[in-house]
Amino acid sequence: MKKFLIGLLALFSYSVKAQLLKDVSESIHGNFEVDAQYYNKDTAIGAPIVPQKILSNGFGNLNYIRGNFSAGLRFESYNPVMLGFDPRYQGTGIPYKYARYKNNFVDITAGNFYDQFGSGMILRIYENRGLLYDNTIEGFRAIITPLKGVTVKAMIGRQRVFFGLSPGIVRGGDVEWNLNETFDSLMAHKKTKVTLGGSFVSKYQTNQSPTLNEPENVGCFGGRANINHGGFNIYGEYAYKINDPSYVNRYNFKDGQGAYLTTSYAGDGFSIMAAGKYVDNMSYRSDRDQTLNAAMINYMPALTKYHTYLMATFYPYATQPNGEMAAQGEFQYHFKKGSAIGGKYGMEVALNASVAYGLDTVNLAPQNDARQFHYYVRSLRPGEKYFHDFNIEISKKINKKVKGTFLYSNQFYNKDIIVENSSVNIYPNIKTNIFVLDVTYKYKTGSSIRFEAQEMYTKQDKGSWAVGMIEWWPVSKFFAAVVDQWNYGNDDPSKRFHYYLFNIGFIRDAVRVTLSYGKQRQGIFCVGGVCRTVPASDGVALTVTATF
Amino acid sequence: MRTFDMMNMYKKISIILTFMVALASCDYVSAPLKSSQPINNNTGNSNKVLKNVLIEDYTGSTCVNCPSAAAELDSLIAMYGSRIVPISVNAGSFAIPVPTYSLNLQSAVSDAYDGFFNMSNTGNPCGMINRKGTPLSAKYLLWGQWGAATQSIIQNDTAFVQLALTTTFDTTSRALNVSVNTTFLSALTGAYNLVVLFTQDSIIGPQKSITLGEIVNYAHRFVLRDNLSAIWGDVLASSGTNIGQVVTKTYSYNVGATYPAAGTTTNPGNQPAIACNFKKCSIVAFVYNATTSSPSQYEVLQSATKKIYP
Amino acid sequence: MKKIMASLVIVILCCTAFTFEGGKIPSVTIKNLDGSKINTSTFSNNGKPIIISFWATWCKPCKKELDNIMEDYADWQKETGVKVIAISIDDARTMPKVITDVKTKGWTYEVYLDDNQDFQRAMNVNMVPHVFLVDGKGDIVWSHNSYAEGDEAILYENVKRVIKGEKLEH
Prior knowledge:
The complex is a heterotrimer.
Chain A (H helix, E strand, L loop, with lengths): L1 H20 L4 E14 L14 E13 L2 E10 L12 E12 L3 E8 L1 E3 L5 E3 L1 E2 L4 E2 L2 E8 L5 E12 L2 E15 H4 L1 H4 L4 E13 L12 E13 L2 E10 L14 E12 L2 E11 L42 E13 L11 E17 L11 E23 L4 E12 L1 H6 L9 E15 L2 E11 L7 E11 L2 E9 L11 E11 L2 E10 L2 E5 L2 E5 L2 E11 L1
Antiparallel strand pairs in A: 1-2, 1-30, 2-3, 3-4, 4-5, 5-10, 6-7, 8-9, 10-11, 11-12, 12-13, 13-14, 14-15, 15-16, 16-17, 17-18, 18-19, 19-20, 20-21, 21-22, 22-23, 23-24, 24-25, 25-26, 26-27, 27-30, 28-29
Chain B lengths: L1 H23 L28 E7 L6 H15 L3 E7 L17 H9 L2 H4 L3 E4 L13 H14 L4 E10 L4 E10 L7 E9 L2 E7 L3 E8 L2 E5 L6 E4 L8 E9 L3 E2 L14 E2 L5 E9 L10 E8 L3
Parallel strand pairs in B: 1-2
Antiparallel strand pairs in B: 1-3, 4-5, 5-11, 6-9, 6-10, 6-14, 7-8, 12-13, 14-15
Helix pairs in contact in B: 2-5
Chain C lengths: L1 H16 L11 E4 L4 E3 L10 E6 L4 H21 L2 E6 L7 H10 L4 E4 L4 H5 L7 E5 L5 E6 L5 H13 L7
Parallel strand pairs in C: 3-4, 4-5
Antiparallel strand pairs in C: 1-2, 1-5, 3-6, 6-7
């Protein structure tokens, strides 16, 4: 606790200094967030005893800019890390620091950086502070624009793993070429815009295994293209990876590949989008022996609707990097104001469907597998079903004061695969029907009340759930909310718990303080061959975030 | 059209460069398996004391990936023989007995190690090799990392401590007497503790598996059942050692007819106790660095195991 | 509990001392919806104020805010000449939805993609929605995190005061 207060004071004094520097066209900006929770003992819902009583996560960013030059750092502190996060985040440190020079021709970074090639299927170095995901590279990066429309990137370094560095070195290069910008005279005013790209990434890690001849240099390369014509857009990307035995793929020496295609057309008031993806053995990490969130080089997002309502995200899907094919389609229509269906204020309808299947693979018997491939892909037909989500969302403004959203979603969730990465049938597949009604009532300028009613019907797993929520904004600087999640359909009547949460928040410009009290339900999540229980909890939590 | 020509040239150069980099930094492997391993179990000098490797496998009956870790432990034992001192620690949420997977393999000492080293909290399966690694979180190793860590100790580390175990066991009264002789082979600074544990091998029962579903007759190996010494050990030296210093510790223990022993489990359910076949039981002893705030605090210097009934 | 309360008090004291204090828009390369690149330091509006709004397709309050501004946007432009720039922080998972959402909703803002979150980091945005107000000289004069119904009225008040040359208090 003491340490983070000292950290806060340090940041505070920097901000004072920043005001003094203002007159010489320099600036110092930053942000910070502190989360702390006090844990109560609650054996009924399975909350463990926390010996420290209070756990906290916190960070502060500081950026200094002077003309083309910038430098910055991030201080992080886990004293100790809160329940639900990887406990290897322990203690205090400055895992992110950089100096950067950027003009129209060159952009050079020494220190830590984030970057992405194409959609990220080969390389995506990013952070998500809410999930404590941070795979920043510490090293050097240069971005050069040798010709108008051409961007060349080169980088080398090692990835952050908690407060240390991954044992593997990442080297990467990428070329992106926007044809329209290069051929100014020919294409600048053409409506068709074309961007091409190609990238190559290689990682180096010594082979220390007593049993396997693990490759020390593992390369991955790919190409991509984006074509845009008015409201029409198409993007395609392909990536190939050479043999890369790792903990996640159970040390198989098979090559890997991934393909992604998405296309959309958006007209005036309507749009249609379709996307498809194929992934085979594409887990790519700078430390082959790591799993969970550590040392990931690439990123393969799930091709499913990004829901935000509690019940619609109860059984979330994640891309299975060892093998998956998936598709998604979406149609949106905006009924105009004054039309028969749109009424006085208009109405929006979105239809969305997504499916994910496994690959059609055949396992190789060890005696026939001298090259340690473990399996081969027999055909391009879909294999076992992993997930589906068919949903419709309707938003309508009824009058000047009342607005509402209705969501219906039908989901299929293969728990064996998604939770335990197991092709053996242990659990029944979970089939859910989810209904959400979200109504906002604005009773005067700056004051509103929002209600949410959610219901998830299912016969499997923990049974049906219901959620009620009221959020009240008496003024725009303050809110109070109550949420109750009720597991009324649990087969075991003694486990039909209410998980209630009270929340108050205060916002002043770019500062936000929220205080909550209540219970969180238990969850299990498994990624890449490791399973972890996110324990239930009961307590008081405080979050402060500020940007300055 | 001059830009166009330049563009072509630029493209060609970048393609050639890309291929050069690609060729230089890809290792295609056609023979993935290494040929059989030379093991320097004894490098000619039969008097040389060798350092054994304590491998702790943190596991549970409902942990679907754990059989892979157990298989890796078995293959390391096959490779390095008596240099490996194995323990499986059943603790955390995947070790709690549930219907079907009702074996209770937990113990108070397992819970203490699991909690302190944050093993199941970080994710099962996992383990520690000689409890090596700084900071504390770096001790956590996935089974894919065990081989390299073990080999590195066997090839590079020097033994500073010698352990000799002698046991007597009365099969009727089930009384076990253990005497542990610790010899310090060098003058060390800091504090050193001795831990003596009781393990039971090959308990047959169900185990959940990612590839096979429920394995009905799975052999749960080297299960940590109880502690003879204090959980965090008994003091051998509190401020440094002399060359040749010998410390002898003796323990009297009554081998239970069943485990978990009463009062040693944190399991809330009333799962049936498991009969203890003394022919499958062993003593594991290890000496670790107990120097507060030393970077190698908790690291194991030497370990040994011995069956209680040969 | 005592510790929490103590830290709460200290934190609030610190926060009230923090004020957003200007500076120019940092120079970061982001993308147009058609895939071409643009440098954020070139954002300009002929001496009129600019509103920069960070949003994402999955962020309900962000879209509510931009929808509500859209209803009055024509009047705002007529009265003050203010321009709204919407920066999407969607990553590869939801990026294809940015263009479809914008067109379906009929937003006429300038919309850019910050899929690598470079601009978000440079502007120190913790979470969306987050709006910045830039005055006619290109100085960032105000910022606000989160959205409550009616916040757009406060934002517009601030736009008008910036045009009059008043200093915004925090």
